[in-house]
């Protein structure tokens, strides 16, 4: 992800420079940061910083946080981010359930929703359910600003540039995360395993239209979690392996989510590890996902963990990543088994190769995908990889 630094005093890069300033304001927390410090850390001129911060204050995104003693001259005014000035809705569409969160600019979750969902019920039913949940959460944004709760998501939607218009609160957009494969750039689904009827469906545009023009971003569930982890401070290069109703991976390489030129990276579950193995829903045979889910269905969690570890070892050998993280409802049902099983396979690989074994960690939390989906909207505000 792009860090704070290297600002440019060019009109064409005004949004980039604003993102650099916002990122530093967010990192400063409630203590705030002075304009001089902002200029030093971004490389922008004091005049450019003053213009940016004046605009952010006018829009309600920044506010004074007191004064700080100076080494010479009058005390410096420090500024802070106003987290409640903007919100994003993150939606996790799984094969059998929907989870949604409302998060402020800091990424703090201020409201949640959970409901059963049948992804095979058809686009109209699924879109209607998502729109209803987003409407409920959008109404909470409007209600927090003193507006009528019935305004709904569409009425609450505003751009970052107009965030201060109605009491300083706005719905910036909706991030939707669901099983892949899909085209992240166009927001178009491909052949979701087990649900071929979604192949080619323009989810982003269809949902945005249903929501009355609210900006929508669509990505894979695994990429959403990986982004959330990276924004939250997980450094280096790592793989997040998600085992729930399906199996996939979110890859962070050099600090950025790796999606590939066709945004198809991370289809971890469909690497073949057993030639002529059992059929997989993708149409191939012997995929990691098919073997893993079959073991889970038999109640053989240790075997499922060993299969997951085999796939993880392939990733480590291919990408030379620093860390493997595992999560998803199936993993959380038997965390010690899966952590131990994956770690055992990776340790065996390290002994064979003479390399140091990479770390293995657990990612827990029922709403991690939905929270990551909210970051698909929030992260770009701060110049990060959404």
Keywords for this structure?
about 375 residues, disordered N terminus, five-stranded mixed β-sheet, alpha/beta, 12 helices
Explain what this protein looks like in three dimensions.
- The strands form four sheets. Strands 6-5-4-7-10 form a five-stranded mixed β-sheet.
- With 386 residues, the protein is α/β, with parallel strands linked by helices.
- The chain is built from twelve helices and 15 strands.
- The protein is 38% helix and 21% strand.
- The chain has helices spanning 14-28, 35-42, 46-58, 123-144, 152-156, 203-210, 221-231, 288-297, 301-319, 329-333, 335-353, 368-378, and strands at 33-34, 62-68, 76-81, 87-93, 97-104, 109-116, 171-178, 182-183, 188-189, 216-220, 238-243, 247-253, 256-257, 323-327, 359-363.
Layout of helices and strands:
Blueprint: H1 14-28, E1 33-34, H2 35-42, H3 46-58, E2 62-68, E3 76-81, E4 87-93, E5 97-104, E6 109-116, H4 123-144, H5 152-156, E7 171-178, E8 182-183, E9 188-189, H6 203-210, E10 216-220, H7 221-231, E11 238-243, E12 247-253, E13 256-257, H8 288-297, H9 301-319, E14 323-327, H10 329-333, H11 335-353, E15 359-363, H12 368-378
Parallel strand pairs: 4-7, 7-10, 11-14, 14-15
Antiparallel strand pairs: 1-3, 2-3, 4-5, 5-6, 8-9, 11-12, 12-13
Brief account:
This protein is α/β, with parallel strands linked by helices.
Task: Tell me what portion of residues adopts beta-strand conformation.
Answer: 15-25%
* Count of individual beta strands: 15
- Side by side, the strands of the main sheet go 6-5-4-7-10
Written as H for each helix and E for each strand, in order along the chain, the element string is HEHHEEEEEHHEEEHEHEEEHHEHHEH
How many helices? The count is 12
**Average pLDDT, to the nearest integer?**
88
Rg of Cα set: 22 Å
The shape is globular
The secondary-structure class comes to: alpha/beta
Low-confidence segments: 1-5, 8-13, 147-168
First CA to last CA: what distance?
Answer: 9 Å
Q: What profile does the largest beta sheet have? A: 5 strands, mixed
Fraction of helical residues: 25-40%
């Amino acid at each position: 992800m792009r860090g704070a630094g290297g600002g440019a005093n060019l009109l064409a890069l005004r949004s980039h420079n604003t993102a650099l300033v916002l990122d530093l304001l967010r990192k400063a927390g409630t203590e705030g940061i002075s304009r001089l410090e902002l200029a030093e850390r971004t490389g922008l001129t004091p005049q450019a910083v003053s213009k940016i911060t004046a605009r952010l204050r006018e829009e309600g995104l920044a506010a004074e946080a007191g004064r700080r003693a100076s080494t010479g001259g009058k005390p410096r005014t420090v500024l802070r981010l106003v987290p409640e000035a903007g919100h994003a809705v993150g939606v996790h569409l799984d094969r059998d359930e929907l989870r949604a969160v409302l998060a402020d600019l800091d990424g703090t979750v201020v409201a949640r929703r959970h409901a059963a969902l049948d992804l095979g019920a058809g686009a109209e039913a699924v879109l209607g359910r998502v729109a209803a949940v987003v409407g409920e959460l959008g109404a909470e944004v409007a209600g927090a600003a003193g507006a009528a709760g019935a305004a709904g998501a569409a009425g609450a939607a505003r751009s970052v540039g107009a965030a201060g218009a109605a009491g300083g609160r706005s719905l910036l957009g909706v991030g939707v995360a669901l099983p892949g494969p899909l085209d992240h750039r166009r927001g178009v689904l491909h052949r979701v395993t087990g649900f071929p009827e979604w192949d080619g469906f323009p989810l982003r545009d269809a949902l945005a239209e249903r929501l009355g023009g609210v900006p929508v971003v669509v990505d894979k569930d695994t990429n959403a979690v990986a982004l959330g982890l990276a924004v939250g401070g997980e450094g280096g290069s790592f793989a997040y392996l998600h085992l729930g109703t399906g199996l996939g991976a979110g890859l962070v390489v050099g600090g950025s989510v790796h999606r590939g030129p066709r945004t198809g990276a991370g289809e971890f579950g469909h690497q073949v590890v057993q030639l002529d193995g059992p059929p997989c829903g993708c149409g191939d045979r012997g995929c990691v996902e098919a073997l893993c889910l079959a073991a889970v269905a038999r109640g053989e969690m240790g075997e499922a963990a060993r299969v997951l570890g085999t796939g993880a070892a392939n990733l480590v050998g291919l990408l030379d990543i620093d860390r493997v993280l595992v999560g998803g409802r199936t993993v959380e049902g038997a965390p010690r088994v899966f952590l131990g099983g994956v770690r055992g396979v990776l340790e065996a690989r390290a002994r064979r190769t003479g390399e140091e074994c990479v770390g293995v960690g657990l990612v827990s939390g029922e709403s991690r995908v939905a929270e990551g989906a909210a970051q698909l909207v929030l992260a770009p505000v701060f110049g990060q990889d959404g």
